[in-house]
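Hey,

Quick one before I head out. I ran the complex with pyridoxal-5'-phosphate overnight. Inputs first:
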Amino acid sequence: MALNHQSNIATDLLEQAFQAIRAYQRDLPNKRAYPTADDLRALSQLDAPLSSTPSKPADVLSDLIDLGAKTAVPTTGGRFFGFVSGGVLPIALAARLVADSWDQGSALHVMSPLAASIEQQCEKWMIELLGLPEQTVAGFVSGTSMATLCAFAAARLHLLKNSGWDADSDGLFGAPTLRVIAPENAHSCVERALRLLGFGKRNVQYIPTDFNGRIDPNTILDLDDRTLLVLQAGDVNTGGFDRFEEICVKANDAGAWVHIDGAFGLWAAASENKKALTQGIQNADSWACDAHKTLNAPYECGVVLCKHPEIYRSAMKTGASYAVITEQRNGMALVPEMSRRARAIEVWAILKSLGKAGVQELVDQLCERATLMASLLKQSGVPILNDVVFNQVLISGRSSSQTSSMLKFIQNSGVCWCGGSTWKGQDVIRISISAWETTEQHIRESAHTITTAFHQST
Ligand SMILES: *Cc1c(COP(=O)(O)O)cnc(C)c1O
């Protein structure tokens, strides 16, 4: 009965959904950058017993729409600068909505030749855009955290093999020790991936970095073919990029595995104006990046890239009695999951729609807005702590307590929203320009609010 009801009104529900999407988009420019505490009290409605009888789908959707209108965080409004959260390009949203209606599985080629072909094409385009080696393989995962885990799994297998240890058959207990070298400010997903994979805390050497989060190549000593070296294209606080060219030469000579965390910064390689930052990345062994940040795909769209297809496939390999393994691309052979939505469709739609010039424009625009923000703040005397080479601006007050009251002022303003962080032991405010929606006007209004916050806080 309840299910019959669903099919009869499917079209009406979609109409209702589209109207809600339009209304949300229309209201965005006037929305506060973050819901008020009062708005968020509406979430207490969720605390209700699960009813034993069905509810009318139209009513459920209507309730959801009302709740979201009040409480959803407007990350796509152009004035949300927290967490490198990215925006959503209309083509990506539209492609996702259409693709979700197809509900394509992307574990096996036979489940969706369409999803498999799109993944294949995205892999090719990304290799070309980012200037990576031709043989590179790409797995489409939920984000950079997962991409990092996958890349490290491949690295672990390879480095242990270098020590004459077959981790696949002999496991990890009693295996030779591997070393890891990472910047002290590596993203927390690096530490987690290492822990999940059993690298052992004491085998990880975190090395100091400069004010922009970059490793001094001369501090990387004793590389060998049992070492995993983690570098960054876009530090999560400063946006700083390591000197890949110089470091990779050393690492390649020693046979170390180089992994680059490029969650948002790897896309610098797609811009003629920014690619100098990523010079030498092609000499790494694996890369992790997100499409849901700089590329402005909806959430849950990350990519792991590895230039050793055999090792990578070997780390991910799986089988099932019903799995029809063919020569064609089977998505699940490149990621740890089986059932998974066809998330590459959004990547494909964005790349196809923007073309190389459009991706460059997107990257450049985010960087230009960040530069504008930094220069407006600097003019007003707000301390800028980083060298703004990409889309990140790191600021603070003159003291920790001033920083903290500035942050409160900004977060309560409703004009824009920034997050707090710590950098080199200091409390800071992080401004990430990562949404295509952010206009120059948004930057000017937000800079005004941040400046006011600075002058009114002590
Ligand atoms: C966001 C981010 C991550 C984690 O990526 P998720 O997509 O959130 O899993 C890792 N490294 C850096 C530099 C990031 O900005």
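The longest helix spans residues 344-379.

Talk tomorrow,
K.
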